[in-house]
Amino acid sequence: MKFNAAVLHRTGEALSIERLDIGALGPDDVLVRLGASGLCHTDLEVIDGSLAYPMPIVLGHEGAGVVEAVGSTVTRVRPGDHVVCSWNPHCGECFYCRRDLPILCEPFKRHEPRGVLFDGRSRLALDGSTVHHFSVVSSHAEYCVVPQSGAIAVPRDIPFDRACLIGCGVMTGVGAATRKTPVERGASVLVIGCGAVGLNVIQGARIAGAEIIVAADLDAGKRETGRLFGATHMLDGGDPGAIDFLRGLTGGRGPDYVFEAAGHESAFRLAVEAVRPGGEVVFLGKVNVDREVRFRWGSLMGEKRIVRSSYGGARPARDFPWLAQLYLDGELKLDELITRRIRLDEINDGFAAMRRGEGIRTVIQFDA
Ligand SMILES: [Zn+2]
Ligand SMILES: [Zn+2]
User: Fold this and answer.
1) What is the Å distance from ligand 1's center to 93 Cα?
2) How far, in Å, is the centroid of ligand 2 from the Cα of 194?
């Protein structure tokens, strides 16, 4: 079967649209015809080379579509189901899966960096040569092949362009404030960085019933978007009076929870300085893995907890249908996250806009 996919041949180059082949499905494989796929910063990190993967590769890890075919042992989905792809499929049986830590699944950690599925093989080929999978999804293509733990059925009523967002940015952000570190009703929350993940932390905190939600960003426009998602207060992240402002809102103590979603050293430091004694900091943003990050020792005092979250404590089979239903019930904002819709062959323009910091999410829409 041949289909169109955006292929990255070399770091730093533009993606090219190629006709790929998919071979025979393995027993645990699910073939998905994509309806939509988001462009995420993590994809851009591979293009720009700060994340190293084998090439050529098909990027995209935020996809939704229809199941076209399944392997012989697949029981969780069947052809015709609408699914959202998870970028953290897991084996369910390893040391970490048995401890309910699927994000650390050992077969996932072993195979994902090599651009292959859990049996060590790629399903994608270009003129007979191997093309690699990204994050066991590769949704910047008309079709993808994922393990059944990476294809999660969701209600049919949610359109694909909105459903796909659940697979990365929404799960990561909403999950951080509801699953990884559940915020209590009435709590005070600071969210640093109002990109796609930060906005989803804000709405996660709103859904959880937080009373004070401060949206911090260096960009006034992005802070204002935070209000649309549920922020009650705005803060210029570079304001030297930031700590005083936050203490003024919280009885002199500082916020109960601080979620860092800016991916900047100064944001990591502000998070730890700002959280109240006994409070919890959740780091969601990323800097280059070789970078060192410094903290003032005194800012770590006071029984503070620091957590690193990659996927918002995701249990995709539990959480994706829940998030889809929250959208259908009008509680979760997804329409407002999409600032641009493109065709697959416009993907390089989409990443160029991301480099310029434009918009929240660009989504590729595939022909029905
Ligand atoms: Zn992502
Ligand atoms: Zn596992």
Assistant:
1) 25
2) 33
